């Protein structure tokens, strides 16, 4: 009698992997099969409903006006900053650093979500200040549980899992902060409202960018940076657990993956940036995902879904990327189409503010 080499302990993970592969394959096949706008609009309505279902209901209730408090302000050689603190909902604080052009005036508004790190680090201060220097008012803020001010058990891995149990998808805390930053920009007299807002962030901040765009109609354009990964390879081959805020309950079963979320951004103009030497995300996967996205945009008669690959960049928001994003924002927010040569920032143009000057002293309470 032949004895099979069988490990019953693999049954459950193997079942999950099997179902996961089938769900991801079905999502892409469905998107690829859509040939006309009417079909997509019907599918879009179902996908948006499934996507929104992962959030708690308070996300979609009418919000009151932002009541912000300025904590401090500083002048630098080429730009200014103001530190503001306000609640995104009761008990949860946004510690916003507002980057402003050196010359006072009225400018378009940009929200710059931070990735899984802190707004005080160079990867975030460099992009936000260069955007401000180019005639925008940019708001940067820390996500929950990172290396900034929200500490003390506000951990997005541990509390992200507990959030599922209480019906609060942890992405709620990332996205509501970004949306409330848009609300905050609406309170400023020096922000031009008529041109809409833009959003750009790297890594987790890039994820927040396209999530927020699905939920909020005020964005005139978006530029997610270094944020598209290999869902199948990472989760099903390597069996690595995603950051909890990246995946809502039942997302794959209900047709939601990266390609879907970028497609749901249509027809809002999008410039996706990636680094060719990114040690976290393979740029080829971003290109593949963007190919699917472009097909959905084309149904609207739009070619405004594009990707820029920085051949010299790793997992970072480089000045070369900022140059491309600024040209993109200038077109869609200012109505100005300049030559590429106009945008020539390099790392030598970046100032590095002391981290202490970016602090808002947010309460260290466990709100998640």
What does the model show?
By secondary structure, the protein is of the alpha/beta class. Helix content is 36%, strand content 18%. It contains ten helices and ten strands. The chain has helices at 11-33, 37-52, 122-133, 158-166, 171-185, 204-215, 231-237, 258-263, 283-298, 319-334; strands at residues 69-75, 79-89, 92-101, 107-113, 137-141, 191-192, 197-202, 219-225, 270-275, 305-310. Strands 1, 2, 3, 4, 5, 6, 7, 8, 9 and 10 form a ten-stranded mixed β-sheet that branches.
Please count the helical segments: 10
Output the helix-strand order: HHEEEEHEHHEEHEHHEHEH
Helix fraction bin: 25-40%
User: What is the residue-mean pLDDT, rounded to a whole number?
Assistant: 89
The total strand number stands at: 10
Q: Any low-confidence stretches, pLDDT <50, length ≥5?
A: none
Question: Separation of termini?
Answer: 56 Å
**How much of the sequence is in beta strands?**
15-25%
Q: What overall form do the CA principal axes indicate?
A: globular
Tell me about the largest β-sheet. Answer: 10 strands, mixed
Structural class: alpha/beta
Task: From the alpha carbons, calculate the radius of gyration and give it in angstroms.
Answer: 21 Å
């Amino acid at each position: 009698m032949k004895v099979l080499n069988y490990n019953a302990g693999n049954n459950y993970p193997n079942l999950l992997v099997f179902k996961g592969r089938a769900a991801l394959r079905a999502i892409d096949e469905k998107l690829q099969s859509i040939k006309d706008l009417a079909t997509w609009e019907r599918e879009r309505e179902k996908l948006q409903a499934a996507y929104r279902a992962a959030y708690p209901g308070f996300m979609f209730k009418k919000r009151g006006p932002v009541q912000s408090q300025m904590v401090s302000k500083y002048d630098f050689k080429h730009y200014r900053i103001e530190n503001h603190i306000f609640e995104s909902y009761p008990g949860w604080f946004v510690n916003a650093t507002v980057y402003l052009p050196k010359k006072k005036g009225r400018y378009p508004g940009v929200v710059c979500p931070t990735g899984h790190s802190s707004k005080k680090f160079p990867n975030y201060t460099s992009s936000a200040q260069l955007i401000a220097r180019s005639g925008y008012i940019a708001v940067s803020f820390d996500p929950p549980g990172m290396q900034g001010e929200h500490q003390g058990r506000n951990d997005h891995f541990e509390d992200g899992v507990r959030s599922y149990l209480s019906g609060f998808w942890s992405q709620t805390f990332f996205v509501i902060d970004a949306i409330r930053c848009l609300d905050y920009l609406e309170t400023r007299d020096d922000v031009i409202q008529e041109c809409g807002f833009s959003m750009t962030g790297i890594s987790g901040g890039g994820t927040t960018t396209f999530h927020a765009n699905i939920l909020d109609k005020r964005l005139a354009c978006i530029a997610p940076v270094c944020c598209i990964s290999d869902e199948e390879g990472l989760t099903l081959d390597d069996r690595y657990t995603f950051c909890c805020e990246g995946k809502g309950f039942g997302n794959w079963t209900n047709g939601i993956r990266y390609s879907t979320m970028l497609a749901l951004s249509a027809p809002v103009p999008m410039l996706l940036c990636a680094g060719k030497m990114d040690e976290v995300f393979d740029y080829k996967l971003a290109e593949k995902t963007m190919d699917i996205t472009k097909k959905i945009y084309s149904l609207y008669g739009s070619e405004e879904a594009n990707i820029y690959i920085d051949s010299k960049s790793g997992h970072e928001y480089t000045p070369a990327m900022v140059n491309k994003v600024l040209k993109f924002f200038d077109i869609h927010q200012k109505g100005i189409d300049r030559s590429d040569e106009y945008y020539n920032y390099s790392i030598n143009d970046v100032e590095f503010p002391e981290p202490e000057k970016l602090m808002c002293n947010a309460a260290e309470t466990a709100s998640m």
